[in-house]
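Translate sequence into structure tokens.
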Amino acid sequence: LAVGTVIYAKALRTFNKCYRQGCLAREGAFSVVRHPIYAAWIWLIIPGVVLLFRSWLLLTVPFVAYVGFKVFIREEDDYLHQKFGRSYLKYRSRTREMFPF
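Result follows.
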């Protein structure tokens, strides 16, 4: 939970900076994965909260969230491709979506 919160906060700060400047975020956590904010929530923060509640049934929530992510992320990828063109395609080809490995 703590690691996820730190990753989320740093990625959000990088995102906000680039959003204000109109540039593509490619530094910090964005240099490792394309969607570090979603990754932090789905794989670190939500499971951390679920473990605090000690509910094995709730451990399915990150997997359901990941399926939702996969369904809806296409729109964001299309938008980023339209906005940044070749730069985004190059970034996308060398950076993993959610897992750094």
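Note: The mean pLDDT is 93.
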